[in-house]
Amino acid sequence: MTEESRNNDKRKQVTQDNVSELKIGKPVVLKAEAYKTIILYASRYANQAIPSEDWKEIYGLLIGYYDDDFLYVERAIPMTYGHDTDV
Question: Is the pLDDT of residue 1 over 70?
Answer without folding.
Answer: no
